[in-house]
Structures are given as C-alpha cells and as structure tokens.
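User: Hey, quick favor. My workstation is busy. Could you predict this chain's structure for me?
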Amino acid sequence: MADNLPRLQLARQAQGFARARGSRLPALVFFTDDGRVRDPLPSIRALPRGSMVVLRARDAERRRELARTIAAIARERGLVWIIAGDPHLAWATQADGVHFAERMIALAAHWRALRPHWLITCAAHSLAACARASRAGADAIFLAPVFPTQSHAGRDFLGPVRACFVASRFSAPLYALGGIDAHSARRLRGGRFSGLAAISALEVDRTQR
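Assistant: No problem, here it is.
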C-alpha cells in the first residue's frame, strides 16, 4: 500500500487536469526508459485502465520485444499505447499511434496524412516547439522537462510558472513531463494541462513485486 499510494495520488491528480480541460485523451501517461526502468512491464500492468504507455527503447530488437508484450497487456488492461520514433513498428504491431521527439516534429504531418486515425504526439521543450507540434497536427504535446529530472540531469527545466504559461497558450492538449510525481504535480494546479506523464513516479517498487 505504501508503494501504491503515491501512484494512486498521481493518477487522481491527472484525472483532475483532464476533467478540467474536458479532455477525452488518457489522463495518465507512463514513458518507458531503459536507463531508469529496466523492466517496465510490472509498472505497465499496474496502470489504471485507460492510461497511456509511450514505448521508448533505443535498441531495435528490444523495442520489438517490448512492443509485442505491451500490445498484449494493453488489450487485457484497456490501455492506449504508442511507440516513440518508429511508425513502421507501430503499424506492424497495431499500436494506437506514434510519438515523435522534438527534433522529429516535422514527421508528424507526414504520418498524420498516412494514418489519419492514429494518435500522434510530440515532445516539446519550449513555446516555439509547442507551436511547431500544433501546426504539424499533433494530437497531444508532452512539454518537458517541467521539473528537474534524472533523464536530463543538469539540464535547464521550465519550472511550474513558465510551464503553466506555455500550456495556457494552446488549445491542443498538453501533458506535463519531467520530474512529475504526486508532490510536484501540486505545483501545477490551475495550469491548463490535459494530463500528467511520468517515468519513475509510476514505477512499481521492486520490493513490492
């Protein structure tokens, strides 16, 4: 229960953002990260129904293996799942869509034309990048890093004031990503986010498996 409570609190906070924006997209998003979560599958199985998973894996073979397993979990658990940077694998595994890093935002428009039914998301690290993603037809934008994060140690972060300002400038759904947990998410209250995305905060404690 001690391990589960912070994840439940984060899920409730994410739902609060989604309700406030009237968003129909998943409120809570888990990003896989090989460097920080060696085995993401227990964490994916523990997600609330209707949550989203963004599969990120640099090694192509590992990405294919995880995609096959996540596809089965998603069907069983009622999850939405997309693959980062590999639209061909997304198509082959019948994922719900694809996620593009900020440097690949231009590809969003191309794949929107090819797969109009897909959920297409983009990462953005600034107001200008959010604008590019919106123009490219992204269904949702992950604004990051909002807070200090292990994924980008030492990197500048937006902070809650600037992040909330960026979110206020767009009608497209924006998710807060980077250093998000049940504690830091409270500092975003009132911001026009459609949901919350996290890595470590949604990891199942190894001692609780």
